[in-house]
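[PROTEIN RECORD]
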Amino acid sequence: MRLQERHMEHIKAWQASGLTQGVYCQQQGLNVKTFSRWFRAYRLSKPSAKPLLMPVEIKPATTQAIESLWRRLPKGQALELPGNISPRWLAELLQCLG
């Protein structure tokens, strides 16, 4: 029997056993690191059932009108801003206010 066939038999037996790799290897007299290497090679050799690429449709964002934005500041103050302000300006303002 070729070595790879033996690896596959152990991998299939382990999967059917419901045991952890460590327990299976201990029962079979296998080195757990070696078995993990066999299993990693087996996983990498299997074709992936999932597609590597998924089709994506990009749609323009829908904008909902926001009447106003509120921010409670650390010392209890409240800040109210109109909902149509620039996000960049708002980010700079919040960064300054810390």
Notes: The helical segments are 3-17, 21-28, 32-45, 87-97. The two ends are 69 Å apart (CA to CA). The beta strands are 68-72, 78-82.
